[in-house]
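Students often ask why inverse folding is considered easier than folding. One informal answer: many sequences map to the same fold, so there is more than one right answer. In these notes we will look at a single instance of the problem. The structure comes first.
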């Protein structure tokens, strides 16, 4: 389980500090490593994390909207690893096209 209460944790900042961070679920189980952060093209805010799920696994997008940093500096995502593993895969350039943004919104709205 994540080691402290959400009241004592901080939300992601501009996103660059998240790259290389371990992503965990609310129970503290490891999801993967953050390989990149993708910003919303209109607002410039960090919107999606590209999560590397491990050796021989494709990277997938996960939303940063409800994410927060734990006391141990891990990023807590309010999602199960299986949901992220079934999400749209991240391409090699991690470019967020309008079509991909719509696909991700649809997927996570129904997850």
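Output (designed amino acids):
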């Amino acid at each position: 389980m994540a080691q402290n209460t959400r009241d004592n944790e901080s939300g992601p900042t501009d996103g660059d500090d998240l790259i290389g961070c371990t992503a965990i679920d609310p129970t503290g189980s490891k999801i993967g490593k953050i390989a990149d952060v993708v910003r919303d093209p209109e607002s410039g805010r960090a919107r999606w994390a590209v999560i590397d799920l491990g050796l021989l696994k494709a990277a997938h997008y996960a939303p940063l909207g409800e994410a927060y940093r734990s006391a141990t500096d891990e990023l807590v995502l309010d999602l199960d690893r299986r949901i992220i593993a079934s999400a749209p895969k991240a391409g090699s350039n991690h470019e967020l096209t309008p079509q991909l943004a719509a696909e991700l919104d649809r997927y996570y709205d129904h997850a």
